[in-house]
Design brief:
By secondary structure, the protein is mostly helical. Helix content is 76%, strand content 0%.
Length: 127
């Protein structure tokens, strides 16, 4: 009897942790999207200050779609977000389009959130 209770408690703790990691992933995507909307609106009406984008407005729809897929706990969506985000940021880094260290730090934090979301989604073949 004790063994069954322990297994149930462990599995509920594991499920709670997975939910938290998934939430962290889609909230990171949502933050990125909301900041991009704010930066576009701010830059449109500001004459003196221009905010830098976390992502370009062109890739907004891709990030929005992948964030939604993480939200609905799609295995493919979470892995695609990690691959897309890492590839895109490496290309930007190699092309010299990163101008500030703050963007790199924010992108590392976002990448960590996406990576944990992809790692914690329950794959069918995982034990």
């Amino acid at each position: 009897m004790k063994k069954t209770k322990n297994v149930q408690i462990e599995s509920s703790e594991k499920l709670h942790r997975k939910e938290k990691q998934n939430r962290q992933g889609w909230l990171a995507g949502l933050f990125s999207l909301l900041y991009t909307i704010f930066a576009v609106i701010f830059n449109e009406y500001s004459n003196y200050v221009e905010l830098k984008y976390l992502q370009t407005p062109v890739e907004f729809l891709v990030i929005a779609l992948l964030t939604y897929l993480i939200f609905i706990k799609s295995n493919i969506g979470a892995v695609l977000m990690v691959i897309y985000f890492a590839t895109h940021k490496i290309i930007l880094l190699l092309s010299g389009l990163y101008f500030s260290v703050s963007n790199i730090i924010i992108d590392v934090v976002l990448f960590y959130c996406y990576l944990t979301a992809a790692r914690e989604i329950n794959f069918p073949y995982k034990t």
